[in-house]
Amino acid sequence: MNPISLASGVLPEFGPVTLAEAARAGGFDAVGLWIEPDRWTAGTTREVRAALAATGLPVLDVEVIWLKPGSAMDDHRRVIDIGAELGAAHVLCVSSEPDSAVTAARLADLCRHAEGSGMRVALEFGIFTEVKTLADALSILDAVGHDLRAVLIDPIHVDRSGTALEEIVRIDPALLPYAQFCDAPAQRPQPADFDAVITDAIDLRRQCGEGALPLHGLYAALPADIPLSIELRSRALREGFPDPAARARAVAEATRWWLASTREAAA
How far is CA 26 from CA 90, 123, 127, 155, 254, in A? Predict the structure, then answer.
């Protein structure tokens, strides 16, 4: 079965130590961590490394490098440096830079900075960014042309951007070191309504199999056994499971059930 990682967005109100502990208590295989470089200290790194050692969990990804017009590359590079200290395998990037050539140049810079760190630089697309579709993301990655570049698939952004499953099937597997996974309602927000798009992404996601996304087709389109970051940002889960370990456990159990039933049906 695919390794599953607890994405930081499942527990947005908790810090990285609690995230690691909840991921282990919930039965995840890995954890994803949110990095705020201006608030992260050497002491934070020591505490998180100790928590990771105690849980035995690897860090699948750190997030987020958000490329914006005029944003400081030193801050973005520091996210990679922190991720490297934690042994992270990937760093998640999004871009609100309207010039795709600038986005490509900055991503190439980040890939060069990540050399020797063991990390891949994964570009996520979505209608909340200036990289709105898979085609947009792949075009930028073609311009980047670095071996450490990657594209990140998130089912809700695949659906909301109108990306076809056939497009995902055609992705070079070398560009897909991991993916995100979740379900969501059928109703799509209006792309021009930014607040509705953000609410959809951070409050309305659903457990796998409880929404209307074509998850079976998407799962089949991804490389076999790809690690999955369970990106389940949900107001219902936050309100229903205030305890971080209980929330993580509910997400892990529902995800493993869906994966097992999907594999059984395909056998």
Answer: 22, 28, 31, 22, 11
Q: Which residue has the tokens 């792949």?
A: 138
Tell me, yes or no, if the pTM score tops 0.85.
yes
In one-letter notation, the amino acid at residue 224 is: A
> 72 near 41, Cβ under 8 Å?
no
| Rg value, the chain, Cα | 17
Paired tokens of 243: 């305890």
Question: How many Å apart are CA 79 and CA 76, to the nearest integer?
Answer: 5
C-alpha to C-alpha distance for 210 and 109, rounded to whole angstroms: 40
Q: Comparing C-alpha atoms, which of 229, 202, 179 is closest to residue 32?
A: 229
Q: What is the pLDDT along the chain (267 residues), one digit of tens a residue?
A: 899 999 999 999 999 999 999 999 999 999 999 999 999 999 999 999 999 999 999 999 999 999 999 999 999 999 999 999 999 999 999 999 999 999 999 999 999 999 999 999 999 999 999 999 999 999 999 999 999 999 999 999 999 999 999 999 999 999 999 999 999 999 999 999 999 999 999 999 999 999 999 999 999 999 999 999 999 999 999 999 999 999 999 999 999 999 999 988 877
Q: Which residues contact 209 (CB under 8 A, 6 or more apart)?
A: 183, 215, 254, 257, 258, 261
Contact 200, 189 (CB under 8 A): yes
User: Per the structure block, which two tokens stand in for 148?
Assistant: 């450490």
Give the residues across from 101 on adjacent strands: none
